[in-house]
Write a structure and sequence with these properties.
Layout: E1 2-10, E2 13-18, E3 21-27, H1 32-41, E4 47-51, H2 52-57, H3 63-72, E5 77-80, H4 86-94, E6 99-102, H5 104-108, H6 110-120, E7 124-131, E8 134-137, E9 142-143, H7 148-158, E10 163-167, H8 180-185, E11 192-195, H9 201-210, E12 214-217, H10 219-222, H11 228-239
Parallel strand pairs: 1-4, 1-12, 4-5, 5-6, 6-7, 7-10, 10-11, 11-12
Antiparallel strand pairs: 1-2, 2-3, 7-8, 8-9
Helix pairs in contact: 1-3, 6-7, 9-11
Length: about 240
Amino acid sequence: MLILPAIDLLGGRPVRLRQGDFDQVTRFGDDAVALARGFAADGAPWLHLVDLDGARSGHWGNLEVIAQIVSAVRVPVQAGGGARKLRDVEAALEVGVARVVVGTAAIESPSTFQPWARRFGHRLAVSLDVRGDTLAVRGWTAESGSGLLAVAEALRAAGAVRFIHTNVRRDGTLQGVDLGGLQTLEPLGVPVIVAGGIASLTDLEALRDAGAEGAIVGRALLDGSLDLSEALRLAAGRNGSGSPV
């Protein structure tokens, strides 16, 4: 299983939100590039970047910082938060992002997503973020009104090859991981990376044993409650080396 340290960008700086609430922001320094270098030096096989400004506005707001991070590290970077149009996906790939995470555009229109999937394949991942029984979209400020499984099935049919699943109500809370979404998606046969609430090695072990392809870890690494080296060793314990996909 992969461990992907998360860096959320707001105004170019690394932060964490609690439950996706922009009124509950915790800053973690001013230098996102240095933070990324540190994670990479400690052995992270991938980095996960979220452009929070882009998630709210519908287009990249921190692409320059994302490009600086890509140039500063020797590990692949996946990034999301500002890719609702084809040109946004292209812009991220042009600056060296290895995988672009799309959410709102795919969820609201699988038919729009289909040609993207054909063109970019594994360079795209679809973010399926749940709040209660429905999917959260548009920077988690709105709900789609559709259920997780129905949307995932439609997107798999449209060509999605990887899902990222987040329980919004647990994100940034350190309250523990919710395996429910992973269990719902598992029968579709599409790799799933899980985020939201991960606080401990026990959470990571549960995800590894449940078949998650990866775990996105943010606050627990940033505040020091989870050690990246220990997380990487545990993640590799069942499925081999934990090398990048």
